[in-house]
Amino acid sequence: MRTRKGVRDGGKDTIENTVALCPNCHRKMHSLNLPEDKRRLQQAALKILNNSEN
């Protein structure tokens, strides 16, 4: 699991602030810390949230 907004950065420690990632993607997010990866992850999470509300 990966928090969408880090708890250290003021994000809440809740299920709504998490997204499931495979081990490889999770490691990539931590080790490379690329802004493009973060942007894509945020877009995918928002798309999933919007679809679940319909």
Task: Work out the helix count.
Answer: 2
**SSE class:** mainly alpha
Radius of gyration: 11 Å
* Distance between the ends: 24 Å
Oligomer: single chain
User: Helicity level, as a percent range?
Assistant: 40-55%
The structural domain count equals 1
Whole-number mean pLDDT: 79
Overall geometric form: globular
Main sheet summary: 2 strands, antiparallel
User: pLDDT below 50 for ≥5 consecutive residues: which ranges?
Assistant: none
Strand content: 5-15%
The H-and-E topology, N to C, reads as EEHH
Q: Strand tally, please?
A: 2
Strands of the largest sheet, in order across it?
A: 1-2
Model description:
The protein is mainly α. It has helices at about 25-30, 35-54; strands at about 1-5, 20. The relative contact order is 0.15. Helices cover about 55% and strands about 5% of the residues. The model has no long low-confidence stretch (mean pLDDT about 80). The longest helix has 19 residues, at about 35-54. The chain has a two-stranded antiparallel ribbon. It has one domain (about 1-54).
